[in-house]
Amino acid sequence: MEDTFESACKHGENIKKFQSEYKEETIANMANILKILGEPSRMKIVLALSYGELCVFHIVEAVKSNQSAVSHQLRILKDNHIIKSRRDGQNIVYYLYDDHIMEILNLVKEHVEE
Amino acid sequence: MEDTFESACKHGENIKKFQSEYKEETIANMANILKILGEPSRMKIVLALSYGELCVFHIVEAVKSNQSAVSHQLRILKDNHIIKSRRDGQNIVYYLYDDHIMEILNLVKEHVEE
DNA sequence: CCGATATATGAATACTTGTTCATATCTACA
DNA sequence: TGTAGATATGAACAAGTATTCATATATCGG
């Protein structure tokens, strides 16, 4: 059994394992969530909320940004099920969707702190 | 002690905890690594390499891309210490820098598969 | 109901970045 | 040493997106 088209490397079999374990859609979903978290403005919001729910006013304060920018990012985080919101009087209170995201971010923090 | 400027929410103290625990630089580094992984083209390369080292030729095959695009992304991954490379004859063989990245990606995979 | 406060939204802009194309570099081998 | 194979690089282009500005919506107190 001769492969007529072969590089010097001998690891072709592992490619099939990779391709069967990771479907395009899975990879797209994985990349998508990381892309969303991979923006300082959004990352800050998530980390701030990890200490407890906050209204928009306090989020703006925490991340030292402005109301409009924060509101746009909150929308993106909410659409992607990273945070949820509820109304509390005149305020909208935001909080994390679940603990899973923070498990990931804690690992990332360890990683960057070596 | 009266704060003259206060929203209806009562969670201001947590903001300080967040700000002292996460410095700007830490957040920037965390976001940076997630941004890098948050691109399907790069994510695929990393996942493919998690099954073992590969030369560029095989990476191109694994991720179904082309030589130049892959080479550019390999550079970015290498510059950010996500992968390393060594020469093996005519080939350059790429492999993961350490296990840490895959720990993160495994968590992410769990997350998207619910 | 009205004004004030809190939040969301849409359009426009500016910036970042992934891909492509062409070409350069480097290694092995005849 | 010259040629072929393997990989890297640079410039140009296209596409995506974060921020800003202006404005809209919604809630509460009086």
Can you give keywords for this protein?
DNA-binding; disordered N terminus; homodimer; 114 residues; 6 helices; alpha+beta; 60% helix
Write structural notes for this entry.
Two copies of one chain form a homodimer. With 114 residues, chain A is α+β, with helices and mostly antiparallel strands. Chain A is 60% helix and 12% strand. Chain A is built from six helices and three strands. The first copy, chain A, has helices at residues 12-21, 24-37, 40-49, 56-63, 67-79, 100-112; strands at residues 54-55, 83-88, 91-96. In chain A, strands 1-3-2 form a three-stranded antiparallel sheet. In chain A, strand 2 and strand 3 form a beta hairpin. Chain A starts with 11 loop residues before the first helix and ends with a helix. At the A-B interface, helix 1, helix 2, helix 3, strand 1 and helix 4 of A face helix 1, helix 2, helix 3, strand 1 and helix 4 of B. Chain A binds a DNA duplex (30 and 30 nucleotides) through helix 5.
Task: Give the end-to-end Cα distance of chain A, rounded to a whole number of Å.
Answer: 47 Å
Write down how many β-strands of chain A occur, each being a DSSP E stretch of 2 or more residues. 3
Oligomer: homodimer
**Strand order across the largest sheet of chain A:** 1-3-2
Tally of contiguous helical segments of chain A: 6
Main sheet of chain A, how many strands, which sense, barrel? 3 strands, antiparallel
- Class computed from helices, strands and strand pairing of chain A: alpha+beta
> Could you name the ranges of chain A where pLDDT drops below 50 across 5 or more consecutive residues?
1-7
Q: Helicity level of chain A, as a percent range?
A: 55-70%
Q: Of all protein chain pairs, which has the greatest interface, and how many residues does each chain bring to it?
A: A-B, 57 and 57 residues
Q: Give the CA-based shape of chain A.
A: elongated
% residues in beta strands of chain A: 5-15%
